[in-house]
Amino acid sequence: MIGRSSREARAFGRSPTEHSPDIEVRVFFNSATASVEDPTTGSFNASFAQWLIDEGHIEAPYVASQGTCIDREGRVHISRDAQGQAWVGGACNTCIQGTVNL
User: Fold this and answer.
1) How many domains does the chain fold into?
2) d(CA 19, CA 10)
3) Quick one: pLDDT band at residue 32, thresholds 50, 70, 90?
4) Among 27, 33, 65, 84, which is 20 to 30 Å from 71 by CA?
5) Dihedral of CA 81/85/86/92: which sign?
6) Range with lowest mean pLDDT among 29-33, 45-49, 72-76, 83-87
7) For the whole model, what pTM was predicted?
8) Spatial separation of the C-alpha atoms in residues 89 and 77, rounded to whole Å
9) Is the dihedral of CA 33, 95, 24, 46 positive or negative?
10) Which helix (H) or strand (E) holds 10?
11) Does an H or E element contain 23, and which?
């Protein structure tokens, strides 16, 4: 179902100056032991944005929230360039850093 984010979803941990999200997205995947909700998924939001915009459900730019139901405050910023390509942006926190020698 496609719908605008609910008043209740916007109420969780929001600062008064923060932009309210235009939609809320939830993404699930199966791990080895359970079905898990992903707190923020840029690749999914890019594909979903392209479809939402092309089908006329929403106009870019917009902000999608993700992870609200699992106490995360993911925000994905979607824009569209002159050629119609959807672009994903937002803030991130580095949790793991390293190098790989091949």
Assistant:
1) 1
2) 10
3) confident
4) 33
5) negative
6) 29-33
7) 0.69
8) 5
9) negative
10) helix 7-11
11) strand 23-25
